[in-house]
């Protein structure tokens, strides 16, 4: 695929913005003190991304941001010519007024995306950080619009809407990314989709990153974005989104997100749910008496298991059984939790039915109860 993808997506935009003269603080060799005036550092971890880098870097070149920018690249032991591709863009970027810092390592194995992001951040000097994946393409307005929001919300993670490529990839996930409301950015942080402000769109102040971070450097299989995201919320950080598509978000089988297991994500979500929500409730109902609801119950702490007053469902077979017996329990007698029709159950609820999977039936049933998300219920799946 050629740079035509960006041209096609951004038709009507100024694809050749005027060049800004290179100043003393725009070169990669400039001293750290002088480079401290940079407004935004684009943080670009790279690992075997040579086939995507031309489009990625062309899009950075075409940003319409009028402040000062820096590109900070860390190559995590690529075995292709990623480093060479990045270096071939250095002169063009610096001529455009974007300073470039490139480093990396050539160990036998990559250290992981968390490590690469941390290194790229530590060698950068922008007051604000724009995180960019090497396989994605930012639209010309991205840095400008997210920077403006970050100035108003310096202790927040700022996201944006995305266009998935190839078109039609992960339709439910993409729809959720783009339609979740501002309030739901907070209330839906326990769902299986992961961070409500997705990592490829993150923009934040350096000060906030330093307070929350660094990223976990556990390597392959570690959800460094979700760990950082939850820690940001623990520290009182906010979440916001520019309600405009500012990123072409590429889907492919080699993406690092595929190395993180569902079980790892599940455990983190349960832990955070118990910490932030269940610890505040005296009792609650689990909406779903099936596999997912029972799994959640089994993963709860003994204290929170005792708070489960019922399961609720629409399946008459489950309801007719009358209760769920926790067979693995060491208690005697074994706990038996009632199974009710959702209309007979009482709030608050933890909803263990996946969003956008029942043709709107679950959502209609939930809406019929006139409950408030974030007070009367939270989505978990």
UniProtKB/TrEMBL annotation:
Task: List, as start-end ranges, the regions of compositional bias called Polar residues.
Answer: 1-10
Q: Which GO terms describe its molecular function?
A: hexosyltransferase activity
Coiled coil spans:
none
Annotated stretches, region: Disordered: 1-34
Q: Name one Pfam family in it.
A: Glycos_transf_2
Per UniProt, residues of the Glycosyltransferase 2-like domain are 41-209
Q: Which InterPro entries match?
A: Glyco_trans_2-like, Nucleotide-diphossugar_trans
Q: What is this protein called?
A: UDP-GlcNAc:betaGal beta-1,3-N-acetylglucosaminyltransferase-like 1
